[in-house]
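(Fold this chain)
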Amino acid sequence: MNFSSKKEGNTLTVSVSGRIDTNSAPELEKHITDNLDGITELILDLKDITYTSSAGLRVFLKAQKLMNKQGVMTLKNVREEVMDIFELTGFSGILNIE
């Protein structure tokens, strides 16, 4: 998994690629939580994510809970195979997915 961030004003966009699994999820979680100060809009661009495990789902849920207190979070460009995971787990009803 790789990721890059871009901050514009109160918006943080994190572009993620590869697979989010037990080994990579903690790094992504730390990066997101360490950079949310003053952020009112978090955008996670998942166009290059091919898989997420339950560890990745936990990262998305934690980020959603944090952003519910200070703004909004949106997942963009979710691939079909990852969307299937969100739908099977019920996360498609919890997360804001465009």
Q: What stands out?
A: The mean pLDDT is 97. The chain is about 40% helix and 35% strand. Helices lie at 25-34, 54-70, 80-89.
